[in-house]
Amino acid sequence: MATRAVIDTKIWVSALLNPRGVHARLVKYFEEGAFHVIVSEPILNRSRIKEKFGIDESVIRELMILIGERTEHVAVSGDVDICRDKDDNMIIETAIKGNAGYLVTRDDDIKFDKEVSSFLDRYGITVLTVQKFLDVIAPPVGPPA
Q1: Domain spans of the chain?
Q2: Residue 126: is it exposed, middle or buried by C-beta count within 10 angstroms (0-12/13-18/19+)?
Q3: Where are the alpha helices (DSSP H) in the chain?
Q4: Residue 121 has pLDDT above 70, yes or no
């Protein structure tokens, strides 16, 4: 079974802002089918991305087409209330409802809150940074042992 992951909105945006960075590498692996992405409406909220990050609508549209065509969509209802930030709760709920194995984020509230970690552990969800997730889906190649 393919690796299933929820990618936080900020990571998609970072890939747009820096097409040569680690976040863009993650998008490249996604385009190549190295893992399966689960999304929900809050993750794909165009107006929020445009307002919060000031990215041109045409750039956002291209990304939304790519994400929309190659992801599994799940509905969220606001059932999760574990994080202080309601947007983070929606990301967490997306991971749970989509049976994700990983939640990839830069958000410290999700990465370092022990209550959130314990909650996600019950669902078999591991929170990783982009680099650590890249190590999972495309381990670095080193010299033979």
Answers
A1: 4-135
A2: middle
A3: 9-17, 22-31, 46-53, 57-69, 86-97, 108-112, 114-121, 130-137
A4: yes
Task: Answer whether residue 140 shows pLDDT above 90.
Answer: no
> Can you give the pLDDT at residue 18?
86
Run of H or E residues at 72: strand 71-73
Check pLDDT > 80 for residue 51: no
> Which secondary-structure segment (H or E) carries 71?
strand 71-73
Which among 139, 140, 138 has a CA at the least distance from the CA of 35?
A: 138
More confident residue, 142 or 87: 87
Fold of 4-135: Rossmann fold (3.40.50)
* Gap between the Cα atoms of 21 and 9, Å rounded: 16
Give dist(CA 52, CA 55) in Å, integer.
8
Cα–Cα distance between 27 and 11 in angstroms, integer? 9
| Rounded CA separation 36/131 (Å) | 17
